[in-house]
Amino acid sequence: MAGMENSQELQRFLEQEKQKAMISEMVGKLTSVCWDKCITGSPGSKFSSSETSCLTSCAQRYMDMSIIIMKRFQSM
Amino acid sequence: MDAFSSSSPSNGSSSASPEALMDQLKSQLAQAYAEEFLETVRSKCFAKCITKPGSSLSGSESSCISRCVDRYIEATGIIGRALFNSPR
């Protein structure tokens, strides 16, 4: 069997899936955190514009914060 | 990762071509993602909509749950877009 080719193909596939898993975990986590922060009342039939922009800002600020925390630890 | 290529002739399910293995992995991953998402939606919407559990689910609780599920899915999309396709 063409072992080398197959294992390289699998390796690539696994790498890709690992990446996807990381992204999906991050989106899932941030959705949970930002939902709790931004959606305070009972859910309506449509997001208000302030809820939408809160969710967007929440996700982006979380990333900003992650960078600051990483830098803080790197400088210790 | 040689385990995949070297051991397959000896075990019984050696019919697993890389394509079949990848397909199987993909569908198992998809199922795992879906289950995890479902569990999250359940706990979020229970917290939001069933604030005081009564003897049965009321109509307003049911409709709250429907809206909650829709909004949670929408929120997931908003977060994804905020992270990956917006100029920062």
Structure report:
Chain A: Its main location: mitochondrion. Chain A: One of its GO terms (cellular component) is mitochondrial inner membrane. Chain A: It is a peripheral membrane protein. The complex is a heterodimer of chains A (76) and B (88). Chain A is built from two helices and no strands. Chain A has 76 residues and is mainly alpha-helical. Chain A has a single domain, classed as Helix Hairpins, CATH 1.10.287. The longest helix of chain A is centred in the first third of the chain and has 36 residues. Chain A is flat. Chain B is mostly helical and 88 residues long. Chain B has a single domain, classed as Mitochondrial import inner membrane translocase subunit tim13 like domains (Helix Hairpins, Orthogonal Bundle). Chain B contains three helices and no strands. In chain B, helix 2 crosses helix 3. The N terminus of chain B is likely disordered. Classes of the chains: A mainly alpha (76), B mainly alpha (88). Chains A and B meet through helix 1 and helix 2 of A and helix 1, helix 2 and helix 3 of B.
Which consecutive residue ranges of chain B, at least 5 long each, have pLDDT under 50? 1-13
CATH superfamily of chain A: Mitochondrial import inner membrane translocase subunit tim13 like domains
User: Which structural class is indicated by helix and strand composition of chain A?
Assistant: mainly alpha
**The CATH superfamily title of chain B:** Mitochondrial import inner membrane translocase subunit tim13 like domains
Using only C-alpha atoms, the radius of gyration of chain B works out to: 21 Å
Please name the CATH topology of chain B.
Helix Hairpins
Distance between the termini of chain B: 38 Å
Domain tally of chain A = 1
Compute the separation of the termini of chain A in Å: 51 Å
- Assembly annotation: heterodimer
| Helical fraction of chain B | over 70%
Helix content of chain A: over 70%
Into which percentage range does the β-strand content of chain A fall?
A: under 5%
Give the number of domains of chain B.
1
Indicate the radius of gyration of chain A in whole angstroms.
19 Å
Q: Which pair of protein chains has the largest interface, and what are the residue counts?
A: A-B, 37 and 39 residues
Count of helices of chain B?
Answer: 3
Q: Mind telling me the CATH class of chain A?
A: Mainly Alpha
